[in-house]
Description:
Helix content is 16%, strand content 32%. Strand 3 (44-53) and strand 4 form a beta hairpin. It has helices at residues 9-14, 111-120, 157-168; strands at 6-8, 19-27, 44-53, 58-71, 78-92, 101-102, 107-109. The strands form two sheets. Strands 2-3-4-5-6 form a five-stranded mixed β-sheet. It is elongated. The longest helix has 12 residues, at 157-168. The structure holds zinc ion (2 copies). One zinc ion binds at residues 72, 74-75, 77, 127-128, 132.
Amino acid sequence: MANPFTVFAAELLRRPGTQKQIALSAPLADLDVHDPSRFAPDAEADVQLLLESLTDGIVVDGTVGVAWHGTCRRCLADTGGVSVSEVHDLYQRVLTDPDAFELDGDQLDLRPVVRELVLLDTPSTPLCRPDCAGLCPTCGANLNDGPCGCDAPPADPRWSALDVLRGDDSPERG
Ligand SMILES: [Zn+2]
Ligand SMILES: [Zn+2]
């Protein structure tokens, strides 16, 4: 089966200004991504890329989106979302731009880039929300549901020590 991420770069480069669109839903298995802790077995990456040839390279712009799931690292609730990665890459046969990727041969295979974005931009230790309050360290209650009742912090031994000192310095003299 032809790799849908492969573009015939030579043809694009022959005519600068040529555009080519890649719009596809790629099963993660096709990207060699196998991570049941983050992705459903039938998850697909939504790939929307626009390629445009310059005189000395090919610009790739677009997005890669993928649905993920996980466990909140603070409150342990199930969480998930869709991560969308932006793509702004330049491929060149002769590298003149320090940020460019090397274009090796006539084919441009975007699969490795898409795979990397799926793996790197999807949280592996997510939060259910940015301000997740987490669990009470004392009773284990989910503080997102409200205060648990043990919001008075446990007595700090340093304060007890101060109490003793205060007692020693008491101005009462028999
Ligand atoms: Zn949480
Ligand atoms: Zn508590």
